[in-house]
Amino acid sequence: ATPSVTVFPHHKLNPINRNIYSGFTEHMGRCIYGGVCDPSNANKDLIDAHGFRKDVIEALKPLDVPVFRYPGGNFCATYHWQDGIGPRDQRPARPELAWDNVEPNHFGTDEFMTWCDAVGAEPYLCLNFGTGTLDEAMAWVEYCNGTKNTYYANLRRKNGHPEPYKVKYWALGNEVYGPWQVNQMTQEAYAERALQWAKALKLLDPSIQLILCGKEGATSWDYYTLKHCLQPAGLNELGEKRKPLIDMHSIHMYTASEDHYENVTAPLAAERAIEVCSSLIDLAVVENKIPPAQKRPTICFDEWNVWLPTRAVGSKGAEETYTLSDALAVACWLNVLVRKSKDVGMANIAQSVNVISPLMTTPDGIVKQTTWWPYELFCRFMKGHQIAVHVACERYTGPTRPEWVRTVKDTPYLDVSATTDDEGWVSVCVVNIHAEEDLKTDLGGVGDTGVEVYTVTGANLKVTNMSGKEEVGLKKSTWDPKENGPTFVFPRCSITMLRWK
Ligand code: AHR
Questions:
Q1: Are 445 and 8 within 8 A, CB to CB?
Q2: What's CA 330's distance to the chain center, in Å?
Q3: Which of 22, 24, 25, 26 to mutate to test the pocket of ligand 1 (most atoms within 8 A of CB)?
Q4: Ligand 1 pocket mutation pick from 74, 215, 351 by most atoms within 8 angstroms of CB
Q5: Residue 235 in contact with residue 169, Cβ under 8 Å?
Q6: Whose CA is nearest to atom 2 of ligand 1?
Q7: Model ipTM?
Q8: Is 175 in the pocket of ligand 1 (CB under 6 A)?
Q9: What CATH number does residue 342 fall under?
Q10: What is the domain count for the chain?
């Protein structure tokens, strides 16, 4: 049968939190030093007064990336934020254990806030659950958000920042379960610590949102930590309503394979992980008798991407060279995030510059990798509400990686999500993962005039943009259903975004 994609623009499913298009900048490889800032670059035209890369800011700004997570990642587990403030020449260099480096601390909290301002994004800070203390964490919140006449708020003022940064998002550690962490913890030890820190941090600043450190979403670690930390907010000593302690539950997943079909079907594991994790949140809410009026935590998918560590150049830098197949995989990832946007409060592509990133810097400029284009298209267009879409087409039933795809047994060759925004634009993203066949498809529910078409594809699945030539770019055209009838051909190995009003 002819494949079909039927869009229901008036059937709104759920609002999409734009924070699902957030980014991540870690002190790892060339992400911060060489990506975000690059003061020693000989080409001074590329650098602004703060030492930031102007071309990186100019590339990210139009995407309107809502939030950037910082300073890690694994880096957090030994990071002492006070090393990174004050006069730069007095900041200590420290051994950096996550990526076996020396951290000069030239870039720290104040520089990150200035950079977030420059790209128009909100900051999201991750607390040190490795060698850090609660005192130190509270001091960081006070430094960033304090408005009173207190020591750390005054220290921020002394460092030239009179206004509070109002940092809303704070993570209670990163991947604390991992054997690769400095001060790895059991679920019991972590959950109790997270609960106690959450209590203190919310007393200090009830306006912040706290993100619990989950694992992959569908694990006993996720269940245990949720069950331990989700508590009815209750009342304070004055009988006033308290804020809930936990606002989001963080999960991480990276997928990749040299095999194209494994590569592009793997993001479905994330879809399954979100479903399971969302059920675990519901279970904890029910078991812990969280009242219906208390906001239910959402999922913070604060590290996701295509990453094959064995392939990335240099284990410290994780500089991936992305292919057309990877661009399709990232588009499928983004379709997953839209399809599951009811449950996802934030998601962060890991990472935003140079390290496992769609955007690379060279001494002379930037390179937009193949994966940049789906990221750009989603950031610009896939917003507002998710809408219903029905897809009927042949399915891929060949081998997939069971550890990724879990219960997903077969996958339509067309991977689709759809949205409508406040201005009435309908956007539909169709990824044809088929390696050989263009798919002539019946389209239903599509606008009847001047449909905008954005296409990302390339000569073959292996092409990249990293050898000086843009092999995978973005093409814009228009399509008129009156002239073309109800059928549209989705080229093999392509991402197509159709938009109309
Ligand atoms: O994003 C790279 C690393 O991957 C992060 O530091 C860590 O949290 C994850 O394992």
A1: yes
A2: 11
A3: 26
A4: 74
A5: no
A6: 73
A7: 0.99
A8: yes
A9: 3.20.20.80
A10: 1
